[in-house]
Amino acid sequence: MPYFAALRARIEAVLTRALAAPAALAAALGEFSELLTRTAEERVAAWEAEGHELEETGAELERLQQLALRVEAAVEPSVCFRLVAVDCSAARAALAARARAARAALQAWLQARFEAIALRLNEDPADAEAMDALERFAAEASQELPALEERCAAAALAGGVLEAGRAALDDAAVEAHWRLRRWPLALQAELAAAAARLEGYRGRYKLQLAADQRALSQDIQATKARCDRLAAVQEVEARLAALGEKAAVYQAREDIFGQPRTEHPQLAQARPWAGGYIWISSVTPSVAASFEPYASLWRTAAELGRRLPDWLDGPFDEIDAEGLANDVDTWWRGSARLLKQLEGPALDVANADFQKHVPLITALRNPGLRGRHWERISAAVGSSIKGDAGFSLSRALQLGLPSFVGAIEEVSEYASKEFALERTLDKMQAEWAGVALGAAPWRATGTSVLRGTDDIQQLLDDQVVKTQSMRASPYIGPFEERVKAWEAKLVLTQDTLDAWLQCQQVGGG
């Protein structure tokens, strides 16, 4: 036995020494593992997403080229050792090909940058803003061109290295290489042509701006005359807004051409338009500012006039009482403020007459009102009333219901308390939707036991307490039987679950 043990140890030592060199070869190839983690397309997509500068792109192109050469220099196609021979040709070729493919893809991406710049430079600006944006783009492209040329030179140098080494390249790689070498000169020509075209557009839009400013001044004067007559309120308001937008656009264009801004002191003071703000002197009367109280009052009256027919004669069951009350209150406050700003005799609007009916509407449009409540209201007012589609506010006024608003509000308040209990019961029952008991296998018995019952027990406890509290409410009458039935179901479920869990504990579950 000692002899065989010694022999085994000797064999292990020989194998260890013989396999050390192949292991070192594998480690040498391990430094190129990055080439296997991503495809060339994935590498380029990540490179673009990371937002690298052109200098970094050139360095990466050179690194990938050197990486391919290092793969080929690191190992021979076939390596013989004392005990084994390793064929490295397939791995060597695959790694070098991956490095060159990554470099070619990055080179194609760089070429796409050139093409995107050229395409943008050939666009025709539709207005002064587009012209200004294109000029800025051309300036940025001019600054970027030297770096692009440097990268192309690096690519050309790498191509020369490949050619000198007689490296085999496919047709696509060769075509990409030569197209990239042509682009710096082509892009210089594109920039020169774009500069000439933009100069022509600049002169054209400069003349157009002067004409637009003259037309704007004429429009402002015409609108001022219409404001003085207070004619066509909506049209005047819309026209003022349009003039403000034009003024903002033209001022922005004057900034583009380096011209001082043309001020229009008859427009609104520090008033926001669709392009910014128009500022005026504080001593100059503003057309929009003087017109605003009339426009606001007109809008209030118009909106009230539009809504009143629906509220008075429309289906009563479609009235949103809360929204109605908020609207009427807003109009009332706004009208009171506007009337203080306007000169002349006090103006009255239908809002004041309508506002006193809001409490009646709110009481009659209570969502908690049911048939039993309408019967109580009918008994109180001495007329048969039901808040359905055939009922309206005009009908309520004809029946003299404002005289009974106190009794109606009392019934409505009672209905609200009952409605709150009803919604609470509905919510409790809805909480059980989707609740299910969980079961898990019990050892190797072929049976199951309940699991995860803590939340269910807590829900049962909470709802039992709530139902007991509801039964003590003086407003439970219409739902008493329903609440009792629900409480009985909860208690039965609770007792059954407790007994089940106790049985599991006794049985070891």
Automatic annotation (TrEMBL):
One GO term describing the cellular component: microtubule
Start and end residues of each Dynein heavy chain linker domain: 288-505
Main subcellular localisation: cytoplasm
Keywords: ATP-binding, Cell projection, Cilium, Coiled coil, Cytoplasm, Cytoskeleton, Dynein, Microtubule, Motor protein, Nucleotide-binding
Localization per record: Cytoplasm, Cytoskeleton, Cilium axoneme
Example GO molecular function: ATP binding
InterPro entries: DHC, Dynein_2_N, Dynein_heavy_linker
Gene Ontology BP, a term: microtubule-based movement
Pfam families named in the record: DHC_N2
PANTHER family, per the entry: DYNEIN HEAVY CHAIN, DYNEINS HEAVY CHAIN
This protein's name: Dynein heavy chain 1, axonemal
Organism of provenance: Monoraphidium neglectum
